[in-house]
Amino acid sequence: MSLTQMKDEAAHLPLKEQRELIAFLVALQTEKDQEFKQKLATKIDDRDPAHWMDLEDARKRYAE
C-alpha cells in the first residue's frame, strides 16, 4: 500500500480510530527520538506552577 493510499484510508476512519492512529504514530516516533523523550521528561518533572497550564486553558486549547 502506498503512502497516498494510507493517507486516504486514514482520512476515512472514524474520529476515534483517527485519534488512535495518531497516538500510535506519535508513540512510535517518540520511542525513537531520545532528545524528545528527554524534553518531555523534563516537562513532566517540572514542579514550578508558573510553567503549568490550567485545566480550563488546556480544554480551550485542545477542544474537539
Distance between the termini: 30 Å
Order of helices and strands: HHHH
- Secondary-structure-based class equals mainly alpha
Which segments are poorly predicted (pLDDT under 50) over 5 or more consecutive residues?
none
State the shape: flat
The count of β-strands is: 0
The DSSP helix count reads 4
Biggest β-sheet: count, sense, barrel? none
Rg estimate, integer Å: 16 Å
What share of residues is helical? over 70%
Mean pLDDT: 92
Q: Roughly what fraction of the amino acids lie in strands?
A: under 5%
Which features does this protein show?
64 residues; mainly alpha; 4 helices
Describe this entry's structure for a reader.
By secondary structure, the protein is mostly helical. 72% of the residues lie in helices and 0% in strands. The chain has four helices and no strands. The longest helix has 18 residues, at 15-32. It is flat, with a radius of gyration of 16 Å. The protein starts with a helix and ends with a helix. The mean pLDDT is 92.
Summarize the structure.
With 64 residues, this protein is an all-alpha fold.
Write the layout of secondary structure elements.
Blueprint lengths: L2 H9 L3 H18 L1 H12 L9 H7 L3
